[in-house]
Amino acid sequence: MHYKYILMILGMTLVTYIPRMLPVTLLSKVKIPDLVVRILKFVGPAILAALLAPTLFVNNGSIDISLQNNYLLAAIPTFFTAYFSRSIFITVFAGMGFLYILTLI
Amino acid sequence: MRYKKDISDGVKNSIPVILGYLPIGISYGILALSTDLPPYLIVGMSVFVFAGSSQLIAINMLTAQATVIPVVMTTFLINLRHILMSASLSLHFKKTPSKLLPFIGFVITDESFALGSTLLEEDRENKGIFFLSMGISAYLGWVFSSLIGVILGRYILNFEIPVIDFVLPAMFIILLIMQIKEKMDIIVAILAGVLSITLYFIVPGNWNIIIATISAAVLGVMIENAL
Fold first, then answer.
1. I need a labelling partner for B55 at 20 to 30 A (CA). Which of A102, B22, B27, B30 fits?
2. Is the residue at A13 inside a domain?
C-alpha cells in the first residue's frame, strides 16, 4: 500500500479545501483581521515568485544567468505573453513553444 | 425546473475554464507517472485536491525526493491566496442557501474566480447554482484531463515530450502576472524570488520556498507601514 502518498493527498486535500471553503461559508459571521488580510494579499505574489525564481535562475546546482540557460530565456517572452493574453491556456502553450524553439537553436 | 437556465449557463461558461485545465491536467498526468505514485492515486489526487499548481508542485517535489510535510506545507501556502478569492466571492452569495456554500468553496480555483468575479456581477436569479454548476463542470474537466494524461503517458506516448517540464514555470508566470495588482506586489515578488534563490543554497529540502514566502509577505507589510 502507498500509505505515505495517501497521507500526503489527505493533507493536501485539507489545506486546499479549508482556505477555499471557510471564507465563503462563514464570512457573514466572522471578519478576518486587517493585518492578516494585508499579509495574505502578499502571499500570492510571494509564493509564486519564490517557486519560480529557483526554477529559472538555478541550473545544475548553481546560479546561471547566461544565454545557455534556456528556461530563463524562454521565460522572458512567456512573461510578455502572460501579461498581454491574461490566459493560462495561451501562456502555457506559448511558453512550451518558446522553449522548444530555443532547444532547436 | 426553475434552476434550469442557471445550470445551463454555468455549464456553458465552464468551457473556457476546461480549455485552460486541459494542457495542465494532461501534463500533470504524464509527469506524475515518472514518480512512484500509482495511477489510481494520480487521478485520486485530482478528485480530492483539485488544484493544478499544487498538484504539479507536489509531483515536482516528489521527483526531487521531498517528504510529505514540505509538500503539504507548500500546498498550504500556495493555496492561501484562495482565502481572498473565497472572501471576495462571498459577497455574491448572500441569498444562496447556506448548505450549498461548502460545495461552492470546493470549486473556487484561480480560473473559476477570475471568470466568476466578472460573471456574478450580472443580474441572475440563482448566483450560487450558476457558480456551482460552472465549478462542477470545470471540476469534471480537471479530473478528466488528468485521466487523459495518465492514459496518454502510460499507453500511447512512448517518447518523451521535451518541453513538458516547462508547463509548471509557464503556469507560475501567468498566475504571478494575475496576482500583480500594485507596485508593492512587484517589490514583494522580487524580494521573495531573491530570498528563495539565496536560501535554496542554504536550507535543505524545499523550505526555501516557505521561508522566503512568509518573510517577503511580512516584509511587504512592514515596508508599507514605513512608507
1. A102
2. no
Q: What pLDDT, on the 0 to 100 scale, is given for residue B40?
A: 94
In a domain, A17, yes or no: no
Share of chain B above pLDDT 70, in %: 98
B179–chain A nearest CA distance, Å: 6
Measured between beta carbons, the chain B residues lying within 8 angstroms of A76 are none
pLDDT bin (cut points 50, 70, 90) of residue B1 is low
The full 3-state SS of A47-92, as one line of letters, equals HHHHHHHHHHHEECCEECCCCCCHHHHHHHHHHHHHHHHCCHHHHH
Out of A72-76, B69-73, B128-132, B163-167, pick the least confident: B163-167
Q: Which residues in chain B have Cβ-Cβ distances shorter than 8 Å to A6?
A: 41
Instruction: Please state the domain count of chain A.
Output: 1
Residue A7: the pLDDT is: 94
CB-based contact B213 A50, cutoff 8 Å = yes
Total-model pTM: 0.80
A79 shares contact with chain B (CB less than 8 Å): yes
Contacts of B116 (CB under 8 A, 6+ apart): B89, B92, B108, B131, B134
Q: What residues of chain A lie within 8 A of the CB of B218, using their CB?
A: 39
Residue A89 maps to a domain: yes
| Residue A2, in any domain of the structure | no
Domain ranges of chain B: 4-156, 181-226
Q: Measured between beta carbons, which residues in chain A are less than 8 angstroms from residue B185?
A: 41-42, 45
Q: Do A22 and B105 touch (CB under 8 A)?
A: yes
Q: What value of ipTM does the predicted structure carry?
A: 0.88
Residue the block writes with cell 502507498: A2
Lowest mean pLDDT among A10-14, A28-32, B175-179, B221-225: A28-32
Which domain covers residue A66, as residue numbers?
32-104
